[in-house]
Each structure stands twice: as C-alpha cells, then as structure tokens.
Specification:
The protein has two helices and eleven strands; from the N terminus they run βββββαββββββα. With about 160 residues, it is of the alpha+beta class. The protein has one domain: CheA-289, Domain 4 (OB fold (Dihydrolipoamide Acetyltransferase, E2P), Beta Barrel). A six-stranded mixed beta sheet has the order 8-1-2-11-10-9, with no helix packed on it. A five-stranded mixed beta sheet has the order 3-6-7-5-4, with no helix packed on it.
Length: about 160
C-alpha cells in the first residue's frame, strides 16, 4: 500500500496515496458560516471552492491558524474534493499491508482512523478521508456551501 506521510503537531499521520489529488502550500482560509466545527473554512483552488478540514479538532487537539510553512493536502473524500490542513508533508512510502494494524475492532470511536502503519521509525495513523465527516456534518457542510454559493451569486447581480 502506498501512503503519503505528514505531520500534525508532533503526530505522524498518513493517507492512501490514491486519495491524494495534489499537495499545495497553505493559503489564507475564508471562514464558512454555519459549517461544522471541524471545517476551518474554504479556499479557492483554480476557481473551485474547497473545504479545509481541521485535523487538529477532529483528533482532539487545539486548532491553530494557518501559517506560511503549512501545507494543504487536496484529497478526494467521498463525494468532494477537500483540503487537509497539515504542518508538513514528509514522504511518499510503500508499506506492506501486513504492517498495517486495523484499528476499528480495538477503538470503535476512532472512525476517522483506518489503521496504524507500523514503520521502521515508529507508527503513522492512517487517516480515512471518506470517514472524516459524520453524515450530519456532511449535510451541514453541504448546506453551508450552498448558502455561500447563493450569497456569492447574489453579490454578482
């Protein structure tokens, strides 16, 4: 399995490389009213509005503003393109599937973690981008994005 490794605070995470669309330098995030708390806001990626996922909040850490050294990993998550706000992208690696410990059976509350990759230099929590938002959060995000699109259309008139 090919994984993209990255850091959030001092914790090493990964996503499956087939979910990654691209990696970009972080830019200013525009707040999105009425979005779920785990959504930092939105960014414009070549004319496309993309929600930014706050991994810190999702994993029980304190949120922090974007700084110039941060990165956004653009991922295809379920039915949308999304940006993961990360401190730093580390590496693209190949991991033997036998070196991955699925977490669901041991920690049912860790729905956003698909497993733990056991690496020579430690571990990496494999982030499941499709499970980042609950159904209610996804519906709330869709509604907030629709309102923003309508407000933007009204401003152009």
């Amino acid at each position: 399995m090919r994984l993209l490794l990255f850091l959030v605070d001092d914790v090493q995470y990964a996503v499956r490389s087939d979910a990654v669309a691209e990696i970009v330098r972080a830019v200013a995030v525009t707040p999105l009213p009425n979005a779920p708390d785990v959504i930092e806001g939105i960014i414009d990626v070549r004319g496309r509005i993309v929600p930014v996922f706050d991994l810190r909040l999702r994993f029980g850490r304190r949120s922090r503003p974007v700084v110039p050294a941060d990165h956004f990993i653009l991922v295809r998550a379920a039915t949308r393109l999304a940006a993961l706000h990360v401190d730093r992208v580390l590496d693209l690696i190949d991991v033997d599937p036998t070196a991955i410990d699925p977490m669901g059976a041991q920690v049912p509350s860790a729905a956003q973690v698909a497993g733990v990759a056991l690496l020579p230099d430690g571990m990496a929590l494999i982030h499941d981008v499709d499970a980042f938002l609950s159904a209610a959060e996804a519906a709330s995000l869709d509604s907030a994005l629709e309102r923003e699109a309508s407000a933007g259309a009204d401003r152009l008139r």
